[in-house]
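Risk register update: the risk of archive-format incompatibility is retired. Evidence:
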Amino acid sequence: MQQELKNVPQDMLKLGIAALAHANWHANFHSFENDKWSELSVLQAAHAAEILIKARIAEEHPLLIFEQIPRSTQIDSDALDFKALVQKAKTIQYSDLPERLWATTGIKLPNLELFKKFGMLRNSIQHFAIPHDFECSTTDFIYGVIDPFINQCWGLYAIDYHEDTEPYEYIVSTLLANEVEFLVSPECATNLKDLSLDWPESKSYTRLMKNRFELALVSEENS
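Archived output:
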């Protein structure tokens, strides 16, 4: 395998995480200069998920992310190279990614129905029109699909990737206020351990999230 292809999984992972950080920022905050952050976050989160799933598939073999690859008669060189793939190959579509992921890695994408609904929302915004009411939110998608997926695959946490100047305080406060269930990273728990967080009225949600913060702190202390 050419060196360029060997680097594909890691390069895609880095790009997917960067897109996730952008989506996390736009989904949880607002801009006075740009009133389309919410819609943009949908495009960014769907893009992030697509890249991250392909990154995991590509770890098995980079060619597995392609739906069609050039035939030997379609390229000038003796071997299939990076240039030929860029020019002539076709990667798997968003809707087909969960099945390819399962077939190549044995991993079943979490919250498959949410993944499908969010894909339709992305298509509507990108190709047709912005719906009056979103059936699912970007935050739901990030923490219901991407978060458990990247944690299972690479031990990563979506809460660690955003573009706020304050590492965790504001984004965590927003998620708690909206009762979003998210995986708590050791870094997040350590960063906020001396802060007094505003917990919502829901006792079951508060109990769940406090337990996750406590477990993350224990994990950090034992590492």
